[in-house]
Amino acid sequence: MRKLYILMFFLGIVSCNIKEGSSSISVDLDQSDKVSIFDLADSISIVQLETTNESLFKYISKVIPYKNRFYVFDKLSLTVFCFDSTGKFLFKINKKGRGPEEYENVEDIFIDNFNDQLLLLVPWGYLLTFDLDGDFFSKKKLPEEVLSYNEVYALNRDTLLFLSRNEYRAIYYSRRSDSIINKCLGVDEMPEIEYTKGNVYMYNDSLYFSSAGFDNKVLNMSHPERRVAYNWDFGKNNLTKKRISNEMKSRLKAMKEKRSYSMLDNFGDDSYPTFYRSRSLETDRFEMTSVLYKIPFSYLCVFRDKIDGKVKVFRETIEGIQFSYFLAHDNFLFLYNTGKNKCYSEETLSLKQLEIVKSHNSDTDNPFLVIYHIK
User: Looking at beta carbons, which pairs linking 187-196 to residues 24 or more positions away fall under 8 Å?
Assistant: First the structure.
């Protein structure tokens, strides 16, 4: 069965010295607020992605809205699909192979808004560039000193930021000189990075890095001193060095015993706090993060309103809409439906929108997008 994915639209050289910021957001994870979806968004629209033999895809790994288009990446088929703002299919990029314009794998995609280019990243060190209509532009071999290239972002017309799962988490690369100009977030600098995966989001033309799990800081990766933009403060639940040490020991023990390890193994164990922060995001109105807390696979959503400073904590809205893995772009928020959460409520939709929802066949149709516009 094809999973239904719903998207909620809410809304030069960099130094490796971390500079602390003064903004700290205090959060009580046991707080339970009644929040309506209309406390967050003022309108809803739905876009059905056209289903044809050429546009049919299996899985949404990433969606990037840009210039009235949706660029959808299906990591299972290693294909990028492009649809216009009404959901009409435009083209796809599917060039698997070893040729000069082809790729054997794709780890990540990104829209370089400084050069209006689509970037496809091959994990073992190739970057393919296409124009916004899917026409091939170039294929570049990246420096071999990085063993694994896992994510790519554009900082300006020249500088790219790569995230890696190896010795250094963040790598700054100059396209002009074809060289690495800086490496940050190393194992020695932030040991917990070795064990966690963070996320990067763009807000007001700056890139922000938020380490998932151990570290609560949100870093402005575009700032010359990589300044801490703000910090999530969970009070008694904050991670201490002792708690981090216990977690690392648990992971190493699992590795020695050659068994799989999940952070969820420690839920309910006093040796480690029963929470795990997934990601941070930001729009003009809100600063947000999602947290696994006490209940495995059930995310708490934390929203801080920039206008009044109030923090809301909830597992679902009063309409029953549940947040899971979500992304932000400009003043829109993307919420991915994992098949286990409810991403829309029929009572909030118009008759025309209900018709789209009820006529959708998850076995044969491409997903439709539910778009919540942030206040």
Answer: 189/16, 189/18, 190/215, 191/244, 191/248, 192/244, 193/169, 195/247, 195/248, 195/251
- As given in the structure block, the two tokens for residue 306 are 């920039």
Write down all domains in the chain, each with its CATH number in brackets. 24-238+273-374 (2.120.10.30)
Torsion sign (Cα): 144, 255, 108, 291? negative
pLDDT range class, residue 246, cuts 50, 70, 90: confident
Secondary structure (3-state) at 346? helix
Say how far apart CA 75 and CA 162 lie, in whole Å. Answer: 18
Cα of 111 vs its chain's centroid, Å: 14
Distance of CA 305 to the CA centre of its chain: 21
pLDDT, tens digit, 9 for 90 and up, residues 260-312:
766 666 655 555 566 777 778 888 899 999 888 887 778 889 999 999 999 99
8 A C-beta contact, residue 87 and residue 367: no
How far out from the chain centre does Cα 238 lie? 23
Rounded Cα gap, residues 66 and 68, in angstroms: 6
Q: What whole-number distance in Å separates Cα of residue 371 and Cα of residue 86? A: 12
Output the six-digit token pair for 222.
């575009």
Question: What is the sign of the dihedral through the CA atoms of 206, 276, 323 and 297?
Answer: positive
Structure pTM?
0.85
- Following DSSP, what letter does each residue of 161-225 receive, concatenated? EEE-SSSEEEEEEETTTTEEEEEEEETTT-GGGGG---EEEEETTEEEEE-SSS--EEEETTSTT
**CA neighbours closer than 13 Å in the CB half-sphere of residue 65:** 20
For residue 290, the Cα-to-chain-centroid distance in whole angstroms is 11
- The number of helices, as runs of H, and strands, as runs of E, in the chain is 2, 25
d(CA 228, CA 243): 23
Compute the Cα dihedral for 78, 83, 127, 199 and give only its sign.
negative
Cβ pair 268, 296 in contact under 8 A:
no
